[in-house]
Fold this sequence. Notes:
Layout: H1 3-16, H2 19-40, E1 45-48, E2 51-54, E3 57-60, H3 63-66, H4 68-79, H5 86-118, H6 120-149, H7 158-176
Antiparallel strand pairs: 1-2, 2-3
Helix pairs in contact: 2-4, 2-5, 4-5, 4-6, 5-6
Amino acid sequence: MKYEYKLIFRVLIALLFRPQIFYLFLTFPTIIFSFILLKVSGYEVIRRGSSLIVNNISLEFVDACIASSAYYLLLFLILLTKDIKIITMLKMFLLGSLIIFLGNILRIFILIIILLEKGYDWFNLIHLTLWYGVASVFVFLVWIYLIRKYKIKNIPIYSDVVYLASKIRKQKKKRKHK
Length: 178
């Protein structure tokens, strides 16, 4: 497939996917794995729809708890990186998603323990710190790990822009010499 068509395809996929798609598919596994981890840790846990009741405290899993934006950011970075084969993109996304999923389950577990053991003020402080300060950095670190593991040398968006700019310059030079 010609480079330009691949680029259009990658950009269209990146724009068509929405974080809500990840929310749809990952809500149930996120709640179930959180439930299992709490149960195995000895807590009294009941699951009711998108809520967990832990030691008589009801915890509602809202969209942000699922971290669907993190999966979307990872997909966006992968799709907008030049010259990655489709099978490598898929491998990177699946491995990266697994890491994000496990990190999110651990985050939820820690936050629930903090809520139960230290109270709402500590929970809120750590939750907001993780939400605003750590979440994007975590996805970035997952991205760094993936590009090193799969030996990716290109930079999302930038490599495509550089390539297209050089191609335009070459075409202008050809026209000048005619």
